[in-house]
Amino acid sequence: MKALLICLILSLTALQVSAQAKQEIFFADVTIYVQGGKYYLTGSKGGNSGPQGFALLESKDLKTWAVSAKANDSLGMILTKGDHTFGTKGFWAPQILKDDGTYYLTYTADEQTALAQSTSLLGPYRQKEVRPIDGSEKNIDSYLFRDTDCKYYFYSVRFNKGNYLYVAEFDLKTGTINAKTLKRCFEQTQAWEATPNYQSAPIMEGPTVIKLRNKYYLFYSANHFQNIDYAIGYAVADSPYGPWVKYNDNPIIHRSIVGENGSGHGDLFEGLDKQLYYVYHIHNSSDKVGPRRTRIVPVVKQWDEKAGVYRFSVKGDEVIVPVMVEK
Fold first, then answer.
1. Domain CATH number, residue 188
2. Which SUPFAM superfamilies match (predicted)?
3. Rounded-to-integer distance, Cα 124 and Cα 118, Å
4. What is the pLDDT, as a whole number, of residue 14?
5. pLDDT digits (tens, 9 = 90+) for 237-289
6. Is 18 domain-assigned?
7. Which domain holds residue 202?
8. What pLDDT does residue 253 have?
9. Residue of 220, 294, 251, 314 lying closest to 39 (CA atoms)
10. End-to-end alpha-carbon separation of the chain, Å?
């Protein structure tokens, strides 16, 4: 009996230690970069604790995450306010890409998009000239897409009685757009993009673009982020500029599919297992928006022979809840 009691106490203690050592990840506007057999996650940090900027976590399985042992500091910061970087507040929506041995980080700060670079994935990311990409007007939620001809296109959100997605040709060397090519992607046209649960001006944001079989797929979020119906859909085009045709069965990620409110604004990536995934954020709880929680869901890609396009859906019953593990 005494031995049984000791075993029970030890088991409960182990469970308690395990629970204390693991906690959910509270990153919003998330992205995952895959390299060297590992996943690297960054996003908008929840709360006001710690330095402003972006931290990076790593994982081998998408489930458990930690600050890299090779990180520049204990928080895993890869870009920090004031360290040769643009912005004083509102550090949102980072995206990482690599070109010719250099890593680039696009992000939002002070409601402007900016571009920083580093020789290492782990940073620090800095700017040679501290400035936004296009200071002519406010623009947020940047996404850089490299086409198969190596041309870059810059997708972002601009404000004009609402949030609308725009695209422009981009010069990676100068970090600037070709303003003559700037074009709005589309209008608010589908019912899911504006539900009555939270009234707002039109909002379409959080773009990700991929190319498959010479077709361009633009994934985006719609509704205000505080709306429980914040969700993700996609559109297809024959050109990076469009015209874009929205999927009739949008949204593909929504609370009715993944079971949690405010499911939106993330990024599409291919896993080490060659499976497609979408990483996104959700509301903190049924009655509270923030700090928002991070989620990952497997994506199903199916070829529609008749339409000549891929159709996308997600495995809503296989959502991954990533957790932080202290090393």
1. 2.115.10.20
2. Arabinanase/levansucrase/invertase
3. 6
4. 43
5. 999 999 999 999 999 999 999 999 999 999 999 999 999 999 999 999 999 99
6. no
7. 24-325
8. 99
9. 294
10. 36
Alpha-carbon gap, residue 276 to 266, rounded angstroms: 13
| Per-residue CA distances from 23 to 2, 322, 326 (Å) | 33, 9, 9
What secondary structure does DSSP assign to 53-95, as a single string? EEE-EEESSSSEEEE-TT-SSTT-EEEETTSS-S-SS--EEEE
Token digits of residue 162: 């609402």
Cβ atoms of 239 and 185 within 8 Å: the answer is no
Cα angle at 215 between 206 and 275, to 5 degrees?
Answer: 65
pLDDT at residue 8 tops 80? no
Q: Please indicate, yes or no, if residue 144 is contained in any of the structural domains.
A: yes
Which segment of 5-19, 129-143, 156-170 scores lowest on mean pLDDT?
5-19
Give catalytic residues, as residue numbers.
29, 205
Q: Provide the sign of the torsion angle of the four alpha carbons 160, 46, 71, 36, taken in this order.
A: negative
Token pair 């994506």 in the structure block, residue: 299
Residue 98 belongs to some domain of the structure: yes
Alpha helices in the chain (DSSP H): 2-21, 255-258
- How many domains is the chain partitioned into structurally? 1
Question: Which residue type is seen at 14?
Answer: A
